[in-house]
Each structure stands twice: as C-alpha cells, then as structure tokens.
Amino acid sequence: MVNMTTTDPTAIVLAFDDLFVLSSGDVDAFVYDMADSPVPPPYYITVDGRRFALSTLTFLETGHGAILPRWVHEEEAAGHLVMFVRRNERLLGYVHDPVAEAEAAAEDGDEGEDAEADATEGDAAEA
User: How far is residue 37's CA from residue 30's CA, in Å, rounded to a whole number?
Assistant: First the structure.
C-alpha cells in the first residue's frame, strides 16, 4: 500500500507489507525496495505513523560489511529507529527520531496555543 502524498511529493506512506527484512551481522532492519522504480527516493517515509527522514548515509547493497550494522547500533543506542530504501545497488539509510518528532509536535501545539491566545486578546481589546 504505497501512497505518494499529493500535497508533498517528497514523502510516501508505507505499510509493513511493503517492506522486507534485511539481516546483516547481528541486526535486522526493514527495507523498502525501489530498485525498479522510475521516481527518485523520497525524503520522508511514514510507516505505522512513524516518520523516517533520509540520512546522509548510503551503503553498498552487497559488501557493506560491518559498517551497516555498526550504524544501526549507533542509531538504536541514540533511541532512533532505522530503515533502508534499496535503490541502484545501494541501501539509503532513513532515521526516525521519536524525541525530535515529539518536540516538533509540541512546538506545533505551542504555535496553535499562541494563535488562540492572540485571538482571545484581540477579542478582549475590541470589547
């Protein structure tokens, strides 16, 4: 169930059925296969309500050795979730940071409260 959002062409929404599991070393990670896709990989992927952002790291699909598992362990130790997109014999790393997502949601909530407070103050000034 791939869903390219019409409002944001740089993002897609996936279901777990769209992914396969890559086992490398002692880690398992989800991978979305875009090897045959004519469109470029997205910047953001949402899976089960979690938004993953494209990182700056890519790995060879074969021969990535210990580098890929080490990166997965480092991200998990930082409290992040990772996934990959398979594209042109490379694995593109994506990261979900739950703390950053919670902070962004809190900021959005604060902005909404500020706008509401401004509107209430404006109504009071008119009265």
Answer: 18
- In tens digits, the chain (127 residues) has pLDDT values of 565 555 677 899 999 999 999 998 889 999 999 998 888 899 999 999 999 999 989 999 887 778 899 999 999 999 999 999 999 889 999 999 888 777 777 888 776 555 555 554 555 555 5
Pairing status of strand 27-33 against strand 81-87: parallel
The number of residues in the chain equals 127
Q: Using the 8-state DSSP alphabet, how is residue 19 labeled?
A: E
Q: How far apart are CA 52 and CA 82, in angstroms?
A: 8
Distance CA 22, CA 59 (A): 13
Q: Where are the domains of the chain?
A: 3-96
**C-alpha triplet 6, 22, 8: angle, nearest 5°:** 10
